[in-house]
Amino acid sequence: xxxxxxxxxxxxxxxxxxxxxxxxxxxSDFESxxxxxxxxxxxxxxxxxxxxxxAADKLACLYGQKGxxxxxxxxxxxxxxxxxxFEFKPKELGQSTHWNQAGYSHAAVGVSNVPAVKRTLxxxxxxxxxxxxxxxxxxxxxxxxxDGNLVEIIDFHANRIVLDLASNIVGRVMKKAKFGxxxx
Length: 184
What we know:
Layout lengths: L1 H12 L8 E5 L3 H12 L2 E8 L1 H5 L2 H4 L5 E8 L5 E8 L17 E4 L3 H10 L3 E2 L4 E3 L2 E7 L5 E6 L3 H18 L8
Parallel strand pairs: 1-4, 5-9
Antiparallel strand pairs: 2-3, 3-4, 6-8, 7-8, 8-9
């Protein structure tokens, strides 16, 4: 029995990396963003928080200034990853994404049949910034959400099954093979 308790304690206390959980995006209007991401992708609001006063001021190191009101929510997706949306008051004007500067550039949504999904989204008024592209076995296209944030739709085709089930395993194999020079 002591061995079992020791094993359980070790499991609980050692910590484990589970993988990418969510990404965050700042929006100008919380309700409109919830409706847009639901209408376009079927995402659903699963949690909403309001942070203001002293609680928000304690996070000024993240948010850039004191005296802000923050509204945030998590949108659940079909893959169980989430999209976190933030609305700040006071608002600041957004800046365009510059891909040649360090920083996050976009969020991607996995789909089947990029051309068909693109046509459906365009019929709903989505602005695409690229046509459908094909690179290294995947079809993809980029659009903008109502605030100009970039969203990619991508179809990895048959590779989706391998990537969904075993992307970390594939990465470990590639670490020992083709990408070994990236690691110490």
